[in-house]
């Protein structure tokens, strides 16, 4: 869980958006918000997820689907129901002709829909920012990853549905963490059930030698790790550790460490008060020059050019 949580989360500024939907038929929403990752959980009733270029998927109560963007799709009571609502980037909501619907369908705090007691109740979460850290997770997921109610035993959907309407102090933080937990649990369950689908770094996380090394790298990238030090921390010889890590992860330890540091650096540079020097220290580079050189080699632009974009 440590690895996938880190890959999903990165710096906290990944822009999560959470909403409870209650809908009465007929209803159909076209989602074209270009978000890199979304999750839909069915609390009661049913819904169909209808991509433009693949078969529709029916979801019942307790089912959860993770949707990898940015391609558009529809969520509806039936695949044949024409689009009535369009969700644009920034969660702007309109009719197909462009009339704004944001206020007309607002039902309360984080609640939205065409009926407060609709036959279908959904909880949907959207991660709106694509980061270099999360890209490692996104590239490992299919366009649609479905976990059925019978595939797992988790209270998270019901807990999130109960918490989403509350406005207690600190509620945004509670919901933010619950959304992260739900995505982690769903993706973990999906990888466990989809044989051969999990990426190498995911499978390696369970290895008694390589797994601890990955956690050390993820949690303390600022440390000046060497292969010998990682091997000693994991109770293996340098040669055996390097060979095992490369075989399981698909790249040598230092190459993986470098990629992780630079992915973190790219995301940390989004923060408005971050300097190249402060980011260099946080990800394990001894100077801004050292980070800039590695960053340009990896991404083709300097850290300052990346931030300006």
From TrEMBL:
Keyword Transcription regulation: yes
SMART domains: HTH_ARAC
PROSITE patterns (UniProt xref): HTH_ARAC_FAMILY_1, HTH_ARAC_FAMILY_2
Annotated HTH araC/xylS-type domain residues: 211-309
Annotated transmembrane regions: none
InterPro entries per record: AraC_lig, AraC_XylS_family_regulators, Homeodomain-like_sf, HTH_AraC, HTH_AraC-typ_CS
Record-linked SUPFAM superfamilies: Homeodomain-like
Molecular functions (GO terms): DNA-binding transcription factor activity; sequence-specific DNA binding
Signal peptide from the UniProt entry: none
Keyword terms of this UniProt record: DNA-binding, Transcription, Transcription regulation
Superkingdom classification of source: Bacteria
PANTHER family the UniProt entry points to: HTH-TYPE TRANSCRIPTIONAL ACTIVATOR RHAS, HTH-TYPE TRANSCRIPTIONAL ACTIVATOR RHAS-RELATED
Protein name per UniProt: HTH-type transcriptional regulator
Organism: Frankia alni (strain DSM 45986 / CECT 9034 / ACN14a)
């Amino acid at each position: 869980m440590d690895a996938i949580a880190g890959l999903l989360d990165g710096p906290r500024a990944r822009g999560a958006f959470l909403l409870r939907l209650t809908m009465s038929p007929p209803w159909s929403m076209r989602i074209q918000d270009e978000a890199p990752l979304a999750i839909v959980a069915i609390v009661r009733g049913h819904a169909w997820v209808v991509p433009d270029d693949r078969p529709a998927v029916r979801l019942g109560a307790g089912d959860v689907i993770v949707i990898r963007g940015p391609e558009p799709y529809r969520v509806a009571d039936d695949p044949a129901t024409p689009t009535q609502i369009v969700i644009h980037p920034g969660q702007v909501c309109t009719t197909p002709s462009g009339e704004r619907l944001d206020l007309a369908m607002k039902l309360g705090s984080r609640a939205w829909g065409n009926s407060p007691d609709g036959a279908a109740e959904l909880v949907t979460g959207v991660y709106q920012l694509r980061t270099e850290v999360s890209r490692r997770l996104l590239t490992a997921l299919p366009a649609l990853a479905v976990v059925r109610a019978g595939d797992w035993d988790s209270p998270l959907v019901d807990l999130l549905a109960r918490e989403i309407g509350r406005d207690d102090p600190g509620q945004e933080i509670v919901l933010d963490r619950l959304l992260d937990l739900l995505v982690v649990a769903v993706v973990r369950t999906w990888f466990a059930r989809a044989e051969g689908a999990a990426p190498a770094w995911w499978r390696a996380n369970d290895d008694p030698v390589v797994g601890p090394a990955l956690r050390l790298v993820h949690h303390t990238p600022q440390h000046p790790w060497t292969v010998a030090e990682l091997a000693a921390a994991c109770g293996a010889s340098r040669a055996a550790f390097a060979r095992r890590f490369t075989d399981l992860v698909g790249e040598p330890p230092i190459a993986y460490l470098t990629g992780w540091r630079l992915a973190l650096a790219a995301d940390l540079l989004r923060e408005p008060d971050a300097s190249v020097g402060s980011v260099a220290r946080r990800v394990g580079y001894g100077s801004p020059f050292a980070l800039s050189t590695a960053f340009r080699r990896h991404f083709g632009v300097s850290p300052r050019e990346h931030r300006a974009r």
